[in-house]
Amino acid sequence: MNALVAGSEGNGHRYSNANGKGRINMKLCIADPPYLGKAEMFYGEKKRANMNEGGNIAKTFKADIHPDAHIWDRPETHENMVDELVANYDGWAIAMLPVNLFHYIQWVPSSTRIAVWHDPNVMPTGSHPRRRWEAVLVSVPIGRKRINDVQTHVGDVLTVSHGSGSFAGAKPPASTRWVLDMLGYDSELDTVDDLFEGSGAVAKEIAQGVLL
Ligand SMILES: C[S@@+](CC[C@H](N)C(=O)[O-])C[C@H]1O[C@@H](n2cnc3c(N)ncnc32)[C@H](O)[C@@H]1O
């Protein structure tokens, strides 16, 4: 029997050779929290107030508003989330602003991979130089870290546009697929939790599994 399985019965791992690779199931998580430092601005009540001034816009963007968005402007909220992910999942991915790496790097294990979602059409702000990417920290599960362990080979940089939806922060399907591939997701074996559902775009892509 696979040593990993023998040593992890309490974690609910089970062994499968259904795909001929002899692998165990993984508990995975994708976390797409409000950006640290921008949470209230993007998802808080102030945004609702601003949108109400604009009339019907509030209705269109209603799902973006969360009464407790402000807690994600506190570093300790993000640090606690990292602790939960490390304690409870075999593999996880967290999306963030590049500048948030200054905080996150202190909290994640040194084995964590730093990946880049390059969005050529990212919304312009007043900043110079213009930011065109989002950082994705990825903890690849043990047993999925080698090229022979996974079903699809993928790089740690993705270039894809965010698309044209009205939901602030919604992820394009290709970016979720890329994250799943980096995690070595096996749709026949693994479970994936989507911690910040938002528009539902991430959960929708997970539900489709990975087409090979
Ligand atoms: C970056 S978005 C997630 C987008 C999602 N991945 C998608 O593809 O649509 C972050 C989400 O967290 C929600 N949020 C804000 N504050 C929250 C809180 N205190 N608890 C839970 N969710 C919160 C926001 O309303 C928003 O939907």
Verbal overview:
With 212 residues, this protein is α/β, with parallel strands linked by helices. Helix content is 27%, strand content 17%. A hairpin with a 6-residue loop joins strand 1 and strand 2 (23-24). Helix 7 crosses helix 8 (201-207). The protein starts with a helix and ends in a 5-residue tail after the last helix. Residues 32-34, 43, 64, 66, 68-69, 71-72, 167, 169-171, 196, 198-199, 201-202 line the site of S-adenosylmethionine. The site of S-adenosylmethionine has 19 residues, from helix 8.
Please render the helix and strand layout as text.
Layout: H1 3-6, E1 15-16, E2 23-24, E3 27-31, H2 39-43, H3 45-53, H4 57-60, H5 75-88, E4 91-96, H6 101-104, E5 113-118, E6 133-139, E7 157-159, H7 173-182, E8 191-194, H8 201-207
Parallel strand pairs: 3-4, 3-8, 5-7
Antiparallel strand pairs: 1-2, 4-6, 5-6
Bound molecules: S-adenosylmethionine.
S-adenosylmethionine binds at residues 32-34, 43, 64, 66, 68-69, 71-72, 167, 169-171, 196, 198-199, 201-202.
